[in-house]
Amino acid sequence: MATAFSAAKFSTQPFHLNPTSTTSHDSPLVFANPTSQFLGSTRKLHLTSSSKFNLTRRSGTVVAVSDVVKQKKSKSAPTLLITKEEGLELYEDMILGRAFEDMCAQMYYRGKMFGFVHLYNGQEAVSTGFIKLLKQQDSVVSTYRDHVHALSKGVPARAVMSELFGKTTGCCRGQGGSMHMFSREHNVLGGFAFIGEGIPVATGAAFTSKYKREVLKEADCDHVTLAFFGDGTCNNGQFFECLNMAALWKLPIVFVVENNLWAIGMSHLRATSDPQIYKKGPAFGMPGIHVDGMDVLKVREVAKEAIGRARRGEGPTLVECETYRFRGHSLADPDELRDPAEKAHYAARDPITALKKYLIENSLASEAELKAIDKKIDEVVEDAVEFADESPVPARSQLLENVFADPKGFGIGPDGRYRCEDPKFTEGTAHV
Amino acid sequence: MATSFHGVGAAVAALSSSPSNSFDSKKLLCSPRRSFPVRKGASFVVARSDGSVNFDLNPKARRAQQLIVNAVATKSDSSPASSSSKPGHELLLFEALREGLEEEMDRDPRVCVMGEDVGHYGGSYKVTRGLAEKFGDLRVLDTPIAENSFTGMGIGAAMTGLRPVVEGMNMGFLLLAFNQISNNCGMLHYTSGGQFTIPIVIRGPGGVGRQLGAEHSQRLESYFQSIPGIQMVACSTPYNAKGLMKAAIRSENPVILFEHVLLYNLKERIPDEDYICNLEEAEMVRPGEHVTILTYSRMRYHVMQAAKTLVNKGYDPEVIDIRSLKPFDLHTIGNSVKKTHRVLIVEECMRTGGIGASLTAAVTENFHDYLDAPIMCLSSQDVPTPYAGTLEEWTVVQPAQIVTAVEQLCK
């Protein structure tokens, strides 16, 4: 019984960036000189080991988007990439991400949150650029650097802050913490502490979407899953295994690599034989895209195509976003290894500043409107902290509640009753 | 991971047809004409979770039966006439698993299967034979060889509404999926604050087979038992295989179902009607007075074989197949301990850190006052299972050791 599914053959599909663009697939695209993309402390490594870089062109399947978008912008009279509403939405989301993370740092040093906290400052363009294009039923899977992904997806700042404070009103009842943000309502599937372990989960969510359409016959099910992960993860087996499966079964998923060049203290170039991650997509039969992850508009354009592809059932895409984290790996990281010149280079490309400049120069928003948004977000974040402060810590009774969906799983006690029927169980003091 | 599984089938077939084996003991010879003790003439009692109890004690039959039958069933010698008049239908354990799986897939379209060679090949032990033709390639998914990732994919699918049954071609391969099983399968319900359920079933054959070598002879129940948030069950008869499979699929918790490589060809008559076996309950195999023997999976058969000898020697062992490896059914076990005051645990896990070790601790903790003697635990040696037949035989517990242990306990 042959199904389209069982076909072993597939072809790499050219990635049509923008069907209306006059430039995209007509002229072959050249990759920008990598040294202009990766600067600072990595420059030396680049120049001395240029043999590592394969600068040959691949027609059609792999593009450097930044070039295309640049060309497009300069040719036409300003056809704006976004409307005013969209612009303000993007701005607000990025400001929320930034303000929230800054507040997290403050709260951490004040002893309100503990453990490992990984902040997203500098990478907001990726989260906003992608997630703001999603519907509520689409899913997002992230790593431990997940606060802003959750916020972009719609999880209230209060819920995230409470979770970070370990309060029972947190999105995971205080049981997950910084690295495990989940929301059923907003389809945030985590929050994972080990890198790479979220990618198969994302692949599974995409599988469910395909299953619903093809087996359960929910014809309009076009839910897309986004998997966010970093450059370090791209050397991990689960990454490659899932690229294979997603391409094999044409799953509606987008693999978004947030390449911030550093895995704690390990430079991407020191860890990876071929640092150009987007090239790994075509090896598995999907388009691989590189985009400037400090520019939210460029990211958004690429995201539109990738998500559109997935929704239409054309399969997965690998998108490498070149981005940078302004802070250390976590709040415990002294961040001594990175070259100050590199940091300065990327600080000058702050995505929020860039968007602000774009909005103002193109008369999409005024300074006053943007300042109003800044103020509004400040209030949201303050409110979130207040809410979290005032929320109760989990009671002991919560200890055993969510170990099993069906608490009969704790078994039968010596007295013949299920342990979960023991009154001590609901108090959290039962011996299980 | 690349093995020749047809080799196993051949080994099993060889066992059932020829009495010559590379390793010694006549005890392990299988007499081709003798069927495995099924309910007809069986000397054990099966208590079902619905409370009904079957007594099939037939003292004459018991004495008449020879010693062993190894764990692998041979051709049934029941005549067609007699089998057609009985209720229910006869099948082999792997067919019972398939029947349970198929019934649940018919019942709920969200149930799907994932694993290596489960689709077109029908499963390396034929548990999923025919299902891909019936349900399609997406519902019975042939995965690439990527255990960690496809188990994680199953978990993601379970979180988003499906009910996957993930097969490990051999339980040992699931060591590669430990990341997903421990971190995600067991923990995500908790770390998400109860928002996501993971109604996944992870199943596959494990245990020591016939000279399969160290890596294909592993007992993963001892590695997985500490993972919070999962349940573990082990099937041992066609009846409980089907019942546990169905119960595991219907459960909202992640369940790991341990099958045994050598038990797939057991034959039994099972009911036609729909039934499940409770995941948390143990099974009373043979009630008795003198000693409680706790066991599971293949060792049940070594115990029952030893039980015959013990009965001939005048002992009356109570045999319980604990079935639920996590959590333990301390009610059934406790009642037994309170009656007999002596406990022997017979397991296939290794001595260190196995299910027996946990069970010893649990029984001591809860029923210390009722014990007249220290708990004895017979486990496999802490040795990678050797290939050589003689050595392999000495790593696992044999019926003679069980007999000796009971005699010692009951002194």
Mind explaining what this structure looks like?
Chain B: InterPro entries: THDP-binding (IPR029061), Transketo_C/PFOR_II (IPR009014), Transketolase-like_Pyr-bd (IPR005475), Transketolase_C (IPR033248). Chain B: Residues 91-266 form the Transketolase-like pyrimidine-binding domain. Chain B: Tetramer of 2 alpha and 2 beta subunits. The complex is a heterodimer of chains A (432) and B (411). By secondary structure, chain A is an alpha/beta fold. Chain A has helices at 34-37, 43-48, 65-75, 84-109, 124-131, 147-153, 157-165, 198-214, 237-248, 268-271, 280-284, 296-311, 340-347, 351-361, 367-390, 423-427; strands at 62-64, 139-141, 182-183, 188-189, 225-230, 253-259, 262-263, 266-267, 288-292, 317-322. The model of chain A is unreliable at 1-61 and 66-76 (pLDDT under 50). The longest helix of chain B has 15 residues, at 93-107. In chain B, the strands form four sheets. In chain B, strands 5-4-6-7-9-8-14 form a seven-stranded mixed sheet, sandwiched between helices. Chain B has a five-stranded mixed sheet with strand order 11-13-12-15-16, sandwiched between helices. The model of chain B is unreliable at 1-82 (pLDDT under 50). In chain B, helix 4 runs parallel beside helix 10 (238-250), helix 6 packs parallel to helix 7 and helix 12 crosses helix 13. Chain B is 35% helix and 17% strand. By secondary structure, chain B is α/β, with parallel strands linked by helices. Chains A and B meet through strand 3, helix 8 and helix 9 of A and helix 6, helix 7, helix 8 and helix 12 of B.
